[in-house]
Amino acid sequence: MEAINFEACRKKYKPEKTRHLFISEAPPKLDSKRFFYYEQVQMADYLFLETMKVLYPDDFSDIKNLRQRKGEFLRKFQREGFYLIDASNEPMKDRRRSKKKKQIKDSLETLIKKVRNLIDKETKIILICKTVYEVCHDELKSRGFNVLNENPIPFPIGHQIEYREKLKTLLRKYTMSRTKSHKKNIACLESLWDKDIENRLSVSPILELVSKMDGVKYTYLTCSTIEEFKYNLTLLKRKRGYGILYLAFHGSPGKIILAKSTIEIETLATFMGKGFKDWIIHFGSCGTIGARKDRIKTFIKATDVSMVLGYKKDVDWIDSAALDLLILDWLQEYKDMNKFWRMLKRDYKDLISITALKAFHK
To answer: I need a labelling partner for 319 at 20 to 30 A (CA). Which of 70, 135, 215, 356 fits?
Structure first.
């Protein structure tokens, strides 16, 4: 692939209006055949793959399919105003970090002229790779460009998860138009975890963080008795705009545990009725999902919820809190719950294994 073809491939997918401009480090070696905008790529196209996973999670099924449909995804990328250029027009001559930074610095004025010709005052710029950030960030900001990231985003080779999480967080913080949104407000019921009410543990900070990062609402209610629990459920039933019921209690197989009583999932189904139809129910409780599979399936059928998640065994509070945060966050990105579960298992398989998290679909 000759150097001139880099720009020919890129310009084919240049949007009419550039809303988001990604600036990466440099094009690949001339014989690599793995340029971001080159449609026929069979391996090592990390930047394309990981970027598409962030922007279009509902359209992604597997890597082979994504590569086969690369032209389709690039056209969507183009239609939505995304464009990617390189800080240096030439492949890196030396892989040492200091030499790469020098090459980018030597190209900086050319880059700035290119950026001016591509954007308007509303365009948001995202710098990819630590070297690009360190050389370009302050200079671009000083010249009035709207650079979004205040910290480096690593190139995704060896840093795929970190790249996806940082890019996803950045886009959420500064724009809501990047992709389809499947926002689900969260209803949470929680009981006391122990008798230390002065230093009380609570999942409420998790809800606050998800609310701020994802732009969703939440309702948080506490209950220590069955009567309180049942009454609070009634308040939450059919709450408009809500789609997640987060139950934060102690538990055991097929049960949630309150201060002086327990609620079997069959009783819970009776309390819920069809008032949470198509919601996602997350049991943030030890072992509740460890019940027989037929009991869980009966619960889903009785309540008509779309998915039930929870832990099959006793789990450390910190481990479960970390995974609860990830679950509530990731649920905002997906309409297809099968795809949500498949992607979560792929990226957090170790944590899911440690906690014995399990999911059941309608």
So the answer is: 215
Q: Which residues contact 213 (CB under 8 A, 6 or more apart)?
A: 169, 172, 173, 329
Give the predicted TM-score (pTM) of the model: 0.60
Q: CA 128, CA 131: separation in Å to the nearest integer?
A: 8
Strand partners, 310: 283, 358
Write out the two tokens for 134. 């360190």
pLDDT in tens, 311-342: 999 999 999 999 999 999 999 888 888 888 98
Report the C-alpha gap between 36 and 6 in whole angstroms. Answer: 9
Query: What residue type is 311 in one-letter code?
Result: Y
Structure tokens, 262: 């327990």
Task: Residue 52: count other Cβ atoms within 10 Å of its Cβ.
Answer: 20
CB 104 within 8 A of CB 131: yes
DSSP 8-class letter at 250 = E
Query: Quick check: 3 pLDDT over 70?
Result: no
pLDDT confidence of 30, banded at 50, 70, 90?
Answer: confident
Instruction: Decide if pLDDT at 178 tops 50.
Output: no
Cα dist from 116 to 113, 145, 165, whole Å: 5, 9, 29
Cα–Cα distance between 191 and 207 in angstroms, integer? 15
For residue 223, what are the contacts with CB-CB under 8 A and spacing of at least 6?
189, 190, 191, 229, 231, 232, 258
Long-range contacts of 264-271 (CB under 8 A, 24+ apart): 265/291, 265/295, 265/296, 265/299, 266/295, 266/298, 266/299, 266/302, 268/299, 269/298, 269/299, 269/302, 269/303, 270/302, 271/229, 271/230, 271/233
Between CA 243 and CA 245 the distance in angstroms is 7
CA 345 distance to own-chain centroid: 13
Asked whether the predicted pLDDT for residue 16 surpasses 70, the reply is yes
Most confident of 92-96, 308-312, 328-332: 308-312
Cα-only R_g, the chain: 24
CB atoms within 10 A of CB 175: 13
**Domains along the sequence of the chain with CATH:** 3-174 (3.40.470), 185-361 (3.40.50.1460)
